Amino acid sequence: MDEYLAALPDCKMEEGLLKRFSENKVYPLSNFLPVPVEEIVYDDGNTIERFFKITAYKHYGEDVLELNPVLVKAANLSSMNWVSEAWGFEANILPPIQAKKDYLRSIICTIGSRWVVRRTVYTHTGWRKIDGAWCFLHKGGAVGGKNVSVELSNKMSAYDMGGCEATMEEKTQAVINLFIISPKQILYPLIGIAFLSPLNEFLRQSGFEPAFIMYLLGRTQTKKSTIAAIILSFFGRFTASNLPGSFKDTENATEKKCHALKDVLTVIDDYHPVAHYRDRQNMNKLAQALARGFGDRTGKDRMQADTSIRQGYAPRGNAIITGEDFPQIGQSGSARNFIIELNPGDIPASNELDKAQEDAANGLLAAFMCGYIEWLLPQTDDLPERLKASFLEFRSKSIKENISGLGRTGDIVAWLQIGMDFFIDYLVNLKAITAAEAKKQKDKAWDVLSGLSNLQLERSEEDKPSYMFVDAIKELLQSGKIYVKHHPEETESELDRRGEMVGYVDKDNYYFLPANTYCAVAQFYSKQNTVFPLTKTLLFKQMESEGIIDGETSGGKKSYAKQKRFGKEKGRYLVIRRELFEED
Hints:
The chain is of the alpha/beta class.
C-alpha cells in the first residue's frame, strides 16, 4: 500500500482512514484506498467495452486487508456507486460524500496511470487479425496466436479447441470413423458445413458469405441432437445436453450468441410440436428470425433510449437446427434452410457411435480442426479470391446440372461442396488419402449434395403460397366444406352440400369467386394455427406469374378474374384448369 500512497503526496493513511492534507487542513475521505489493477477491453469484433478491475486496501489494527477486486464498467467509474455494491459495509466514503467521490475517482486514475495492467479480452470465436497477423479464437486462446485472452459466457464456454495430446494419426482416424456411424446423405452435408465454417471470414471478404441454415429433421429418438453434438465437437466438447442454443432461448439471446460464435458452427436444438398456441408462435418466431438472420446475414437494429440506432448483431458463423417438425415460416424462410431428414435406424446405436462420442469428448475432433485451421493460416491472403472462384464455379455447375440450382439451393450446394473440398484437400495434405482417392470423394460428395438439393426443391414447392392455396381447395372440396356447381340449374337439394358455394366447374376449368374462395382458404389455415402468407392480390399476382391463372386488363385496370356468365349469374371468376385439382 505504501508504494501507492507515495504517488499521492497529499494523502496518508492514518487511524484507519485515508486522509487528504491541503493548506494545513485535513480532509478524511474514506476508510479504504482504492487501487486499480487492470484495465480490460472486451472486444466482440463489433463493439468495445472498457472495464477497470479495482481492489482496495484498509487497516485492521496493525494489519492491512485487501478487499476482493471488483470489475467496474468505465462509464460507471465516476459515480462511485459501485463501492457499496462491491464491498458493502467494509468500504465507507465519509460525508460530505460528493466531493470526496470525485477525489477518490482522481486517486484511482492517478494510481492506474502508473501501475494498471492493460489487456484485451476477445468475446467471440473465429478469425481475428491481431498485431497484423491472423489467428483463430476459441475459449482456450487462439490457433496461430500467443497470449490471447478469450472469454465466452454460459454454454459458449464449451468452444474450447485445446487440451488434446493425441497424435495426428489418432485424430485423423477419429474423423474417418465418423463415416461409419451414418449414411453419406447425412454425414456429407454435416462434414461440409463443419469445414465450411472456418472459411466464413474469407467468403465474407469475397462477397459470398454462406447464407443458409442446415435443418436436421426427424422424429424423437432419431439421434438428431446426438449427431449434431458430435459434429459441433469439431469446435469444442459438446454432448446432446450442453448444446449452445435451444428453442427455449429468447430471440435476443440467440441473436447475440450467433454473433459471438464467428466462423464456427452453432446448434439451436429441439424445435418440437407443442399444444399451446403461444409457445408455437414463439418457436416459429425464433425460427423465422434465424432464417432471416442467417439467410440475409443481418441483425435486428434497435432504437436506444436516446433515439439513436444500435446496430443489430448479425450472425457470423453457421448453424444447425434440430427439430421434430418443420416450422411455419413461409416459402422464403424455408428456402433458407437445407433440410436433412433423419429416419429411425439412420444412426443406429452401435460401438462405432459410442466411440465417436468418446473421441468427441476427449477433444480429438477439435484437435483435428485445429490442425485444419493451422493448415489454412498460410493461405489466408489468397483465400478470398480462391473461394470466390470456387463458389462461382460450383454454382454455375449446379445451375447447369439440376433445376434446383436456379434458386437459393444451388448456392447452398456450392458452399457445402467448398467445405467438403477443403476437408478432402486437408486429408491429402496429411497423406491420409491419395490425390486419386480425393477426386473420387469430391465427385461422390457432389452427387450426394445434388441429390439432396432436388429434395429441397420438392419441399420448397410445397411451401409456395400457390401450392398451399390449391392444396387447401382440394381438401375443402373433398370434405364438402365448400362446393362448386356443375351447371347453373343445380339446386341445393341436388347437391346435398352443407358448405359454401364458391363457384362453378365445367369439363375444362374451375371458376372460383375470388373473395369467397380466398377467405375459405385463409380460414382453413387459421384453424391449423397457421397464417396464410400472402394477401389476396399478391397471391393472385403470383399465381398469374406461375401460369396457374390468366389475368386480363380492361380500361387500363388489371384484373386477375375473368368475366363469365352462368345462367342468369354474371360475375368475375378466378379461372383455374380442372386438371390441376385432379392430377395425382
